[in-house]
Design a protein that fits this description.
alpha/beta, Rossmann fold, four-stranded parallel beta sheet, three-stranded antiparallel beta sheet, 5 helices, about 25% strand, flat
């Protein structure tokens, strides 16, 4: 086998490996909705016919995961908050997207944490929510207790 062929094969393997672990690919390959049956990997959950899903998340990959999940769940998604270290300007309605700070937390990280706490605290015991957690969350969402500032 020639060097150019090996290089082409190696590049193809590398590209496929990187694509397979992108946040949107991971969600689209592990989450499906068929009628009222929500499958997340090997777990199957039955939603009520009128049941809405609330989506919350934080982390550097949370925006990509949320975008993919919205494509799958469509009108089932009622509300939610996603805190990320970057915003793309894309409309992810009905989700609110919030910019946190990474790697050093700041006021944006506190705002993001407060919005998540507020949104999650409004859920009832029979509401269904999904939390998308990825790396960077410990800086992106901060809520220090008094007297820590």
């Amino acid at each position: 086998m020639k060097t150019d062929q090996r290089r082409t094969i190696a590049r193809s393997i590398f590209t496929s490996a990187v694509k397979s672990v992108q946040p949107d690919s991971l969600i689209s390959n592990t989450v499906t909705l068929e009628g009222d049956m929500l499958r997340i990997s090997d777990t199957i959950l039955t939603l009520r016919p009128d049941q809405k899903v609330y989506v919350f998340g934080s982390g550097k990959a949370s925006l990509g995961m949320a975008k993919s999940l919205l494509t799958i769940l469509e009108e089932r998604v009622a509300d939610g908050v996603i805190v990320s270290n970057h915003l793309t300007g894309e409309d992810l309605a009905p989700l609110k997207t919030v910019l946190g700070s990474h790697p050093v937390p700041d006021e944006k990280s506190i705002t993001g944490a407060e919005l998540l706490i507020d949104g999650l605290s409004r859920l009832d015991s029979d509401d269904f929510f999904i939390y998308l957690l990825s790396g960077g969350s410990s800086a992106l969402i901060e809520k220090p207790v008094n007297p820590i500032t």
